[in-house]
Design a protein that fits this description.
The structure is a single chain. This protein has 18 helices and 13 strands. The chain is α/β, with parallel strands linked by helices. The strands form four sheets. A seven-stranded mixed sheet has the order 2-10-9-8-7-3-4. Strands 1-12 form a two-stranded parallel sheet. Strands 5-6 form a two-stranded antiparallel sheet. The longest helix is centred in the last third of the chain and has 31 residues. 43% of the residues are buried. Bound molecules: ligand PGU. Ligand PGU binds next to helix 7. Its EC number is 2.6.1.1. Pfam families: Aminotran_1_2 (PF00155). One of its GO terms (cellular component) is mitochondrion. Its cofactor is pyridoxal 5'-phosphate.
Length: 427
Amino acid sequence: MALGAAISRAIPRRALSSAATSARSASSWWGHVEPAPKDPILGVTEAFLADPSPDKVNVGVGAYRDDNGKPVVLECVREAERRIAGTLNMEYLPMGGSVKMIEETLKLAYGEDSEFIKDKRIAAVQALSGTGACRLFADFQKRFLPDSQIYIPIPTWANHHNIWRDARVPQRTLRYYHPESKGLDFASMMDDIRNAPNGSFFLLHACAHNPTGVDPSEEQWREISYQFKVKNHFPFFDMAYQGFASGDPERDAKAIRIFLEDGHPIGCAQSYAKNMGLYGQRIGCLSILCEDEMQAVAVKSQLQQLARPMYSNPPVHGALIVSTILGDTELKNLWLKEVKGMADRIIGMRKALRENLEKLGSPLSWEHITNQIGMFCYSGLTPEQVDRLTSEFHIYMTRNGRISMAGVTTGNIGYLANAIHEVTTSS
Ligand code: PGU
């Protein structure tokens, strides 16, 4: 029964105010609700699933596939699940999540021997994967610095805009990508950092920038960090792909380590969706480096306070998997090997896609496919060319021309290259 109908049956009509009855008849409580636009990334998967073609290829969502195009559960995860099964209870976690999982997770971002961890200067809570960590931070920012804004790189993962919009934090643009060179627009980026009001918040992708696959070099990160210091800006790192850029989680934390060395307070969103393949487990961490332990205790308590009315406490299973793997040397080493394996397969596919396009005699340069890193190739295909790939070849990707290299396999690469060649050389 519709909610409106239920209410009007339960309450005598005369008891309702005339305004309420005239404004909304029983059936029109939600009459003003328009269908939401499709999500630019997850909507691609929906369209892919609905396509009956046997040739269809999904290079939309950033989810790793093996060389047969199948989703992967890492061997370290399987083993952790075997160890967990039947041995532990499923009671609520504390509001801030699993202490053990957080301990191990902070080591990945801040370093195994981080003085900040030892000094208990980091306020950290388990989060609903990377998205939840970003959202919790955005809400925290709004609650405690309500007049602040955030600078967001252009382009970025589309959901960043939704997250800070829903947290009601105004957004400013940080120029990042140079379409002609298909590389970093470092000069404009530095200008925007210099021209922002002192003490601004900036969202930075720690590694494997989504969607461009373009990261600043180590030298450039040092310059960025220096300028942040001069301007007293706050860096918030979204690290959704630690391990996917170089194959080594330690190397992929370099940008964060540079900022830490330079003495910045930082915020950091970590996710195990990609690097442990725990997508649906929704397991991640939000951390904020504070001035001292007392401040960290206060900040953590407020993060928990934000989480409590939203989801009370985070889910337990993913946290158990992560802490089982990272807390055991043998399993951790297996994980590191498997992360490297995933990153290497993607790097191999980049080379192969470029070679395939060059062999087809493409007059265009495809060098950027191998220059870019991480899960995505920002191909430079126009929205119209993407539409043709979908309608004529059943190839699904986001309309910004982003190809999830994780979905490219030896089985589909020839077909994909041919189709890209076709839409970029004929109209
Ligand atoms: N941050 C960045 C930069 C991301 O690319 C993603 C996921 C996330 C955070 C959030 O990941 P969690 O699963 O919440 O940990 N981006 C993927 C996955 C699909 C999506 O849009 O959520 C993508 O394809 O861009």
